[in-house]
Amino acid sequence: MRRGVFAGSAVAVLMLTAACGSGDNSAGKQDSVQPVGDSKQAGSGYDGYGGGSGAVPAADTIKSGPAGELKVKPTTELGATVTDSAGFTLYRFDKDTPKPPKSNCEGDCAAVWPAVSADDASAGEGIDKTLLGSVERADGTKQLTLAGWPVYRYAKDTKPGDTLGEGVGGTWHVLAPDGKPAKAGGGAGAGSGADPSAGGGAGADAGEAGGQEKAQADPIGVNRDTKLGAILTDAQGRTLYRFDKDSAWPMKTNCLDACLNTWKPAKAVDKELVKGIPAELVGTFKRPDGTEQLTIDCWPLYTFTGDKEPGDINGQGNKGVWFAVSDKGKKVTTTG
């Protein structure tokens, strides 16, 4: 199954050569991307998802009724997350309060972030049922709470599994099973308990368990919960970086010898397993020692030994030549 990355035919080589020989990938080209936060509406923080323009779908275009049985969904990007019974991602708002529970999302905000009704909500496997509660909203309805935090859906999440609301306005976050913001490296065991279905526990739907296993196996992830915006990570949630002294065409590394004590070449991956970023950006580079290194948009990628936890971005801007990479394959120049 590694033929997507390691195709050895002349045709494949020529195609890669053409792709990596474009002007956009030249070593002298200083491409960059602004942090996602810059493209979101400052102020209310209710909307402004940085993924594109367009009207927000009406709240009734997604499920806005009771949550049913809450589920734990393991993800590569955010660790363990919480969804409703239909698989829609659930969120919390930093401007709310858990003690006492209070929602500060009303009016226009509530049209973009529909409150999840407390009616019929229950805790599935991996969620402590004692953490569930409710709070009365201004209109008299009861909103579900998790660990005291009012629970919402996001109108732009149009299908189960979407997490487009993560980090909007710097105040909206996907919920972890313990009511805290989900974060990379949280794993299936984050929160009050691990999701037994991830290990084939009783009652797990075979298709769902397979989907969770696939999510955990993603070779490249996208971490949206950073001040740099959406950046690429490896399968362990470690930030991926590129080196300005390398070149995209011809593909060449200048991180050798002592450099490799600090910056570890990212292993090549099977592009057929990659999701969340354009597959055509994914490639491979043969290093001088014969090993295969992951490339994105023809740039060799590395992890930084100074990043101690998944989600760390301590290598960003290091010596002015090391930078994280966006989910579009571009160098992220901001240092937050």
UniProtKB/TrEMBL annotation:
Bias (Gly residues): 184-210
Pfam families, sorted: Lipoprotein_15
Keyword list, A-Z: Signal
Superkingdom of the organism of origin: Bacteria
Signal peptide (from-to): 1-18
Ranges of biased composition (kind: Polar residues): 23-33
Region (Disordered) location: 23-49, 179-222
Keyword Plastid: no
NCBIfam families according to UniProt: SCO0930_lipo (NF040526)
Name this polypeptide is given: Lipoprotein
